[in-house]
Amino acid sequence: MNTTYDVKLGGIQQRENRSTPTFIARWRVAGKAKSKSFRTKGLANAFLSDLRQATKLGEEFDIATGMPLSMLAPQSTGPSFLEFAQSYVLRRWRTSAARTRETDAYALLSLIPALVTDAARPPAADDLREVLRIHALLPEDRRAELSTAQAAALSWLQKASLPLSAMGEPAVLRTAMDAISVTFTGAAAGANTIRRKRAILHHLLEHAVEQKVFTSNPLNEIKWRAPKTVTLVDPRTVVNPTQARQLLDAVANVGRKRGPRLKALFACIYYAALRPEEAADLRVDNCTLPESGWGLIVLEQARPQSTKRWTNSGETHESRSLKHRADRETREIPIPPVLVTMLREHIAEYGTAADGRIFCTRTGGTYSSSAHSYVWQEARKRVLTPAQVASSLAARPYDLRHAAVSLWLNAGVPATEVAKRAGHSVDVLLRVYAKCMDGQQEHINSKINDALEP
């Protein structure tokens, strides 16, 4: 290493020709010009102050880097945060559902661009996220070709990404927590989003502990209060049986083809408490539909929607095991005669897809969530008052499931049976639907009143 005491400090220059202001600290070492870019003038001033202090203490400066020996960064032998994040995604790819892959990547889109050094000429954050989304966080055979500008952005990120070992520093972890606490536009993120992203960061660092990068998870040392989340179903979203029937009838009148094809699907959400993705994968073989009386659905799979780049098939919908269930585990739901009749009529009118799915487009495809939403909102406008349309009452098709579970509970069906049919654990069921279990309130109040009377 070549060192010198020949150091001359310069000033700070603000670069104006970019959307984000950049402040450049300049100095000379052994006659050679040096510079370092910062995002704020305060950081640039602080850096020059550190250099000034080093010269006062008589420190030697490294000619190659222009830095005093006390400020030279130690050479990292481990992976960068970007490299480890990529390996983390790929390790989980084979065993993860498409939505899990997408959720992992969404958290890393916040973290990776934030955990970088103050390298010169940083690309825009949107450009970095796009490179990660379409290329860096995907398996090699799924990566998109990058333009020259995108390749340059990825190269910058590879060089600027902090070493994984830096995650042991509290200041770096605070930077990470700040990054997951805001949206990509800089607004405050929702509580569920923050919790979900922190959980992914924690899990990633657990993998680092397994690989002996850390002796314990450094995130556990950071004092952090989880934001409160709303886990209870709001009773104001729950329709009564009359409203539910009116909405289902209105669905059938939305458009000439889409609405009629979706009526029985929405009916499955209400009368059988199916999740929309479960109804989307319902097949004839899953159903016992007698000419009269109650029938039975034996659910085997769900068909969630995700972005094509995260699915195994490259399609937006693909079948997978039921939520919170082991592979090939099923769920039995007895269904009332009204739903049996609707399903029989639907199959007689529209047939099924080639793979036996009951609900499909004319070409055998699966209706998107946006198609569901459009039909549902049109039906709401036809049935509900303007004030109700503007409210949260049955705001989403999923709210029909909430209405079904609330109806069963308030009808006196044991919680264990409701949980079994809805695909919940009993404790989750009682916690989530606590505010909706009010059907017996008048009866209970009457009993208390009787006990209070002399």
Key terms for this structure?
mainly alpha, 3 domains, three-stranded antiparallel beta sheet, elongated, DNA binding, Integrase
What is the percentage of strand-forming residues?
5-15%
Q: Helical stretch count?
A: 17
| Strand element count | 10
Query: Class of the largest domain, according to the CATH hierarchy?
Result: Mainly Alpha
Q: Termini separation (Å)?
A: 96 Å
Give the overall average pLDDT.
89
The strands making up the biggest β-sheet line up spatially as 2-3-4
Write the H/E string, N to C: EEEEHEHHHHHHHHHEEEEEHHHHHHH
Q: What helical percentage do the residues reach?
A: 40-55%
In words, what does this structure look like?
By secondary structure, the chain is mainly alpha-helical. The protein folds into three domains: 3-71; 81-221, no CATH class; 235-436, hpI Integrase, Chain A. It is 45% helix and 10% strand. It contains 17 helices and ten strands. It has helices at residues 41-56, 81-93, 98-114, 125-136, 148-160, 170-180, 191-210, 241-251, 258-271, 276-280, 337-350, 369-383, 386-390, 399-410, 415-422, 426-432, 441-452; strands at residues 3-4, 7-15, 22-29, 32-38, 61-62, 287-288, 295-299, 301-302, 320-321, 331-335. The strands form four sheets. A three-stranded antiparallel β-sheet has the order 2-3-4, with helices on one face. A three-stranded antiparallel β-sheet has the order 6-7-10. Strand 6 (287-288) and strand 7 form a beta hairpin. Helix 8 (241-251) runs antiparallel to helix 9 (258-271), helix 8 (241-251) crosses helix 12 (369-383) and helix 9 (258-271) packs parallel to helix 14 (399-410). The longest helix has 20 residues, at 191-210. The radius of gyration is 29 Å and the shape is elongated. The protein starts with a strand and ends with a helix. The mean pLDDT is 89. GO terms for molecular function: DNA binding. Residues 233-449 form the Tyr recombinase domain. Residues 307-327 are annotated as: Disordered. InterPro entries: DNA_brk_join_enz, Integrase-like_cat_sf, Integrase_catalytic, Tyrosine_recombinase_XerCD. This is Integrase.
